[in-house]
Amino acid sequence: MPFSHHSHSGQFCHHAKDSLESCILQAISKKLRIFCLTEHMPRSDPRDFYPEEDEMGLTPQDLTAAFDEYYTTAVALRDKYKEEITIIIGFEVDYIRPSMLPEIRELQEKYHFDMFIGSVHHLDEIPLDFSKELFLKAIETVEAVDSGADVEEAYNKGTKVERFPEIEITGAKGEKRLFEVYFDTQYLMLTALKPPVIGHFDLVRLKCDDYTIDFRTMKKIWEKIVRNVKFIAEYGGMVEINSAAIRKGWEYPYPGPDVLQLMKEEGIRFVLSDDSHGIAQVAFGYQKALDYLEKQGVEELWYYEWKGWERGIEDGILRPEDRYLPKIRAECVETKSTKVKDLRRIVTE
Ligand SMILES: [Zn+2]
Ligand SMILES: [Zn+2]
Fold this sequence. Notes:
Strand order of the largest sheet: 1-3-4-5-10-11-12
Shape: globular
CATH class: Alpha Beta
Number of helices: 11
Bound molecules: zinc ion
Radius of gyration: 20 Å
Number of strands: 15
Structural class: alpha/beta
CATH topology: TIM Barrel
Number of domains: 1
Helix content: 25-40%
CATH architecture: Alpha-Beta Barrel
Distance between the termini: 9 Å
Largest sheet: 7 strands, parallel
Strand content: 15-25%
């Protein structure tokens, strides 16, 4: 099993399980060659805390301290296991409101990262993938903010929701409206950050009534998707084939076939991710994910490697030009590609 470009651990993420080191050991035992560590960024405003962070009574300082420890731990583990696996150090970014941009920049300056994942988990500040309940709440909030009325639904934990002013207001309601706001929010995230990897592109379908819904049948939404995909193609972003959807009950990974075909036409490069939140999920669903790619006619997958280093995809042996690990920087990693059909031989569940 080859690589994952998106992972979390229970040590630094409270909705995940297991220590970071045990996740890396699991990745090695599953024969992963490349493992990207991408813990969630710390959020400075308690309005943006995940439900379990609220329950635990955490503070923004707790999140910042944990993130700092994550970085130090990741750097040490990268060195400890360099013979066995290439650890790429990154983080997963949320862009919830315009004022978060300087915070993200600050994190990028304070720490050095090889890469990062650009994701959208919140719409009008409400998490959309945690539960059906929160998904429905997100719809209520979006509709309330659309209306401009000063009603309870337009508030998040007691503070009025701060919406991106660029989000287009249409007459749509319900799920359809949520899809629109999702792809507008995603576009703002994409244009602000140009993330090297885009996380779970169609996450908004996770809790909707029918995840197989075809976006091509909804003109307005499809236009937004085409706009986003063309933008990603333009700056050269890569999109993850994220197998977390499979463990959450889908027949295939993110993104679904409508979006995948469009991306293929636009020449988008794909990377493989398990978005694991603990050892049980490392490389989970990869066989199904590869089946899907083959069926959809995607023949190539991309991955990161330290510049100047070569690790056999099949044997995992390291062939470096020198023995010193490169600095942790985007400039010190490169992207390479491999054939889906070659990965089939390596991937066994
Ligand atoms: Zn998570
Ligand atoms: Zn995510």
